[in-house]
Each structure stands twice: as structure tokens, then as C-alpha cells.
């Protein structure tokens, strides 16, 4: 009996010891570090580019990532061909990171003597970490191309949507292989710069809603006029079909916006109650008029007895002029010829027997200016890998619906969110380049908000 107890105690001690070692091992398991893309470009139009390295999980300690620089036959220096925001020593760049960081980055700039008419490249490679804090991931090198008219031939790219809450709108230029992040709560209304339109869109990524009142005097509207609105004006509202009328249709049509086309006749332009998501973003009331080719935005807090006015002038270089109802006109989208896709959250409508206003996550919309696309479902004959420029003639690209990609690249299996591996897209960008594009990961950093795609130039 005593012997049995002794053996049991030894086994228990061994088990506890094994478990303790396992916990220690887990705590020092290295994370992986990869470049977010395999290629970047420097051109007269884009004289600098940010190089981002992403971690597979937040770092549990401070450290640094070291990169080797192969300048090939280009010379380093501001007055030479190129320079970097972090100065290399003996062709090695050290990028420091802190505990909790999920990425590091630096910027490559064109020098004043760069001869961009000659196509050349420099290469950065991740060096082995001597401290074993991290290991090198799949994307260990990035080539920075210097060219007069750099056009990306394609790459594997991670979108930095900011994590599960997806706090950013990320504007992507395929041909220049760039992405611009903008705080999705930094604007409320977008005013079309189209010469033939007086259309106003809502910030669908921030779930902004607009509900009309049968009133034209903005100063006469009080909080009493919005009694009970909070119980109906929210996304997703599965109980009130009327809510679908207070969001823009995700297809991008100006005929299906919550705010009606702005009329030349002032008496036809009603007051709208604007409901905004986000911290410290209270509800507003607005009325929008026309003055020649300009918009006139009247806006105020709901309880205010006076209002402010803002004249908004169209700029043909942009799709929209954006306004923040707290801070006035603000810069959001790049110029319309400088981006192709936007990734973020989005609001819209869906038919579940009745039309409802709903929220979408992980959405990709097209630039409405000269960008078109078509979804292609893979078959035994057509796959992403074997699709070539010769196959493009059999495809009809769509340019009227900005939601062609939308949420079609991911779906649900039961209650689990999954990547669709049997679809890809043919895209024509604003410069007429054709790319095939396929999403390769829904959660590149084991967290939603960091999807990954690969794409390839076809012509």
C-alpha cells in the first residue's frame, strides 16, 4: 500500500514538473516576423514608400529586428540615390520594438540624385535573431524598385486594418503597391465632386445614419423632435425595416443614398438627424443646400438653437470632399486616380424577406472612378494559378457596383468565419492595368482585421 502511494506521488510530481516546463516553454516561444509585402516602388509620383514588418502575435518583450541592405549599384544618401528613415550601419538597419508591439516599420526615400528613368532596385532581408525572440516568417525579403513609372507586377500583401475592431479605412493602390490608413471615425459626410451630381454619402465604415425630418428650418429642430430615435437608429437593426432607409446602399449608387440629391430649390432640402458611432461623437442635425456649383452645409448639435455653415467646393481630383461635423472639411481619400480598393467595416442593406440595415466587417469596396472588377469562381478548368491575360476576354468587368468584392471573399460555416478559397477577382485599375487577386488569409496575424491577399499583373 505504501509502495503504491509512493509511485503515485512520483507520477504526480513528474506530471507537475512536465506541466511547469511546458508553461515555461510557451512563455518563450518566438513569434515570426515577415515583411507585409514582397515588393515596393519609388517613382516621381511616389518618392517614398513605407516598409512594414508584421509580427505573428504581439511581442512579449522589447527587442529589435535587424535587416541587411543590399543597395546593388545604388548609392546611399539624401544627395545620392536613396536614404532611409532609420540610418543603416554597415548596410544593417536595426528596428527597435517594445513589448506589446505588433509591427515595426521604416521609410525609404528617393535621394536628390536618383535617376528614376533607370529601373533599379535595392533589397532588404531579415537577419536571424541571435536572442531567439523571433523567427523569420515566410516573407523574408522585400525589393524596393526605383523606376520612372513603377507598376507593381504583384506581391503578397497584408492589409493593416488595425485589428478586430477594424478602426481604419485602408486605401490600396495595386499598381504602386501602397496602402493608406485613415481613422474611420474622422469624417461623417462625403460630398460628390462629380460635376453632374449633387450627391452626399454617409461614412458607411463608421455606420453613420441619416433620418429625414419634414422640416426645413434647422434651428427649429430640438431634442424633442428625436424622441424615440435611439431605439430605431442603429446598425444592425433587425426589428425595424425603416432603418434600411437611413443608410446608403452598399452598391454606391447615388440613387440609393439616405440623403436625397441636393435640390436647386431650397424648400425641397430637408433637415436630417445624423447618428454617429464612435467615442464622443454625438448626434447632429444637418441641412444641405446648393450655391452655384458649391454645397452649403448647415449643421449643429440637436439641442442647439443656432447653426454653423460651411461652404464645400468640389475638387475634380477627388471623388468626394469629406466633412467632419465637429471639425469641418477633412482629408480622407487619396486622389481618385491614386487608389483602387478600400478595406474596412461597412454598413448597407440586406433582404431577409424584408429590407434591413445591417453592418458588415472585412469589406472591400472599389474606387468608383475608373476601377472595375469581376468575381471568378474556380473550377477544374479555371483557377487563380492558371488564369492568364488570354482568359480576360471571357470576363465582363463591373464598374457600376463598388461592392463587387464586398464580403464575397469570406463566409460562414455554421457560426465560424472562413476564407473562401475557391474565388478570385479580375480587377482593372484606374490606369488600365489588369490584375488577378485572391485573398489568402482572413487573419494573417491570428486576429481579424489583418487579411492577406496575393495579386499578379496580367498585361
What tags apply to this protein structure?
single chain, mainly beta, 3 domains, 5-stranded mixed β-sheet, 39% strand, disordered N terminus
List strands and helices in order, with pairings.
Elements: H1 2-27, E1 31-35, E2 39-42, E3 48-55, E4 63-70, E5 82-84, E6 92-97, E7 103-110, E8 120-126, E9 134-136, E10 141-146, E11 154-158, E12 168-173, E13 178-183, E14 189-192, E15 200-202, E16 209-212, E17 271-275, E18 284-291, E19 294-301, E20 308-312, E21 320-324, E22 328-330, E23 341-351, E24 355-366, E25 372-377, E26 410-413, E27 416-419, E28 423-428, E29 434-441, E30 452-457
Parallel strand pairs: 1-9, 2-10
Antiparallel strand pairs: 1-3, 3-7, 4-6, 4-8, 5-7, 8-10, 11-30, 12-13, 12-23, 14-15, 14-21, 16-17, 17-18, 18-19, 19-20, 21-22, 23-24, 25-28, 26-27, 28-29, 29-30
Strand order, largest beta sheet: 5-7-3-1-9
Let me know the average pLDDT. 91
Number of helices: 1
Ranges with pLDDT <50 over ≥5 residues? 1-26
Query: Rg from C-alpha positions?
Result: 26 Å
By DSSP, the count of extended strands is 30
Number of domains: 3
Instruction: Give a short account of the largest sheet.
Output: 5 strands, mixed
Helix content: under 10%
Shape: globular
Description:
By secondary structure, this protein is mainly beta. It has 3 domains: 29-150, Sandwich (Immunoglobulin-like), CATH 2.60.40; 151-185 and 334-459, no CATH class; 189-331, no CATH class. 6% of the residues lie in helices and 39% in strands. The protein has one helix at 2-27, and strands at 31-35, 39-42, 48-55, 63-70, 82-84, 92-97, 103-110, 120-126, 134-136, 141-146, 154-158, 168-173, 178-183, 189-192, 200-202, 209-212, 271-275, 284-291, 294-301, 308-312, 320-324, 328-330, 341-351, 355-366, 372-377, 410-413, 416-419, 423-428, 434-441, 452-457. Strands 5-7-3-1-9 form a 5-stranded mixed beta sheet, with no helix packed on it. A 5-stranded mixed beta sheet has the order 2-10-8-4-6, with no helix packed on it. Strand 14 and strand 15 (200-202) form a beta hairpin. Mean pLDDT is 91; it is low at 1-26.
